Amino acid sequence: MQNVVPASGTKARSRLRMGAVLVFVGLLLAACGSSKTSAQTGGPYGGAAPTSTPSQGAGAAVVMTKTGTAGTYLVDGTGKSLYLFVIDSGGKSMCNAACAEVWPPLQTTGKPTAGTGATASMLSTITRDDGSTQVVYNGHPLYYFQGDKTPGDTAGQGVNGFGGLWWLVSPAGSAIQK
User: Fold this and answer.
1) 10 Å Cβ neighbour count for 65?
2) Which pTM value belongs to this model?
3) Which of 61, 68, 87, 150 makes an SS bond possible with 112, Cβ 3.0 to 4.6 Å?
4) Residue-level pLDDT at 130
């Protein structure tokens, strides 16, 4: 005997499958956004930080410039894009906890150094709420964006998240708003 399913049953199963897929994708995204390893090591891309990332404690961070479609902007010593958060003020980072998982701070274990195109006198550091040392350029704490997967990616440019806008940083130390 052959089972015949009414059209409404097919639609219901289709909706159920779609719902299951959406739940799975939501759980996957939640898991990716809550990587404790990334927050603890300062790695910008989830999981363990690449060994070349200065924020992992390999020494002093290097800040230099790169030119791309957004113009000339700051990058770390491996070419990974650096951003500022417009609501940071008074020499304090306003990006902590969940924010710092998506926007890991550029950390250093020594005095940061200026590479090609960056101005050494604009580099300084602050102590974050967790006690780590974050690199600052012209008064702006610097961050990576977890959505940038390779050096030179600028997926964080103009993102509105965690209560403010995120911009690439010009060599003059201002937000590149284009």
Assistant:
1) 19
2) 0.70
3) 61
4) 95
